[in-house]
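Intended use. Records like the one below are meant for learning the mapping from a protein sequence to its folded structure. Do not use them to infer anything beyond what is encoded.
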Amino acid sequence: MAYSFFVSAVVLLASAAIAASFDEEEGVIVLNDSNFDEAISTHTHILAEFYAPWCGHCKALAPEYAKAAQTLKEENSEIRLAKVDSTLNTEVSEKFEVRGYPTIKFFRSGKPQEYTGGRTASEIVSWLKKKTGPPAKALSSPEAAQAFIDSADVVVVGFFPDPESAEAKAFTEAAAGYDEIAFGIASDSAILEAHGVQGAAVVVFKKFDEPRVDFDGDLTSSEDILKFVKQNSLPLVNEFSDQTAPRIFGGDIKNHVLLFLRKSAENFQTLLDGFTEAAKSFKGQVLFVFVDVDVEDNARIMEFFGLKEADVPAIRLIFLGDEMKKYKPPTSEITSDSIQQFVQSYLDGTLKPHLMSEEIPDDWDAKPVKVLVGKNFGDIAFDKSKNVLVEFYAPWCGHCKQLAPIWDDLGAKYKDKDDIVIAKVDATANEIEQVQVQSFPTIKFFPAGSNDIVDYEGGRTLTDFVTFLDSGGKVMPGGGQEEEQDVGDGDEDDDDDDDQTRDEL
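Structure written out for the chain above:
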């Protein structure tokens, strides 16, 4: 009887082991529709990337993702990384509402939450450890403390002789509120002595800029500690890439100065040094970002700012608040002094936003659909004798291309109506002060006799548009709206297949 029970137990364990076996690539578990549920039930903590093989951002993430997976495996961590090809596994992708690539979700005991960390291996590992362990890692010896400091580009260490003090509790609270960086906590006198610390202290250790920055504020304020960590954990100058984009755009600092420059340029280092020197004066207020124009994928960023290759090197400033605003320096000179003056004038509120505009085409009104640019927009759209319907589009946007023949038919239908204008604006080259374009296509209605601007949110068939216009903008027809493309996102690899989920930044 006992032997029979033993055999049965062995069989069950063997079956479980077989069932829990998954294919791997570079330490990353490969999942699909049939084994996904099994994986998230087998592993208590698992990070899953939903990707598309053609997605450029996914390709850029792949080596960092694999490196993170291998790091955790080498540490014998229970945390695992997995990936799902969403183009082949639509069932699980639809279940977890995958709308863009890559979509990354963290599963704890089978329950999903959004991944909000960075795109480098160290950031991924740090985020996962913070989610699965204590907010701050206990450092028990000088050797352990040094190993922790050496483990990543940026770490934070709290030194507290009394681990139960108000300062230590505030530090732990701050650590719990920030997943992107690893926090360590030490109370051993030998550790404090090794790092020249007397009493309580919080220190950011970095492998760039200043190797060590000591907090000199209120150690009992978790908010102040967290603000200090965020301000000192980024380099003075951040190079834009797929890996750094989440850190740049997801941070608390919404004022960004961008230097567009070729790394291959002879004066690259001179200009970058001046940019870096200027950054020191605005630490915590303005984020300084360098964009390498030699990188092909960065062409869209140049386009977004209306820059051409002949304009490089160039400086631009952007405010990424609810109402995005761009600023252009009054001079093309790029020195530490000129950059500081430019940024300071922005902070002082004396700088006016820069609005891009193409020149007015000679034939702008030759066709039923009128071509508007920044310089003639106000005269046409705000003509109070007319109802004006305007499409704000991007030349590369697949949804805009799909709408184009319908828009042309709409223009043809109303070409003889003096009180209705159908128009379009290339929003990548023209900016309108009164209109914020967040996705493409954006359609706005400017009713006659009014200063109102109405968001068109109806269907996109010819009949839908006609119903709307014939009602004077009073009836918003249904029909469902197609997914729009965010400003800054393009058709990956020039693929205009609009059935593909968009490629996320």
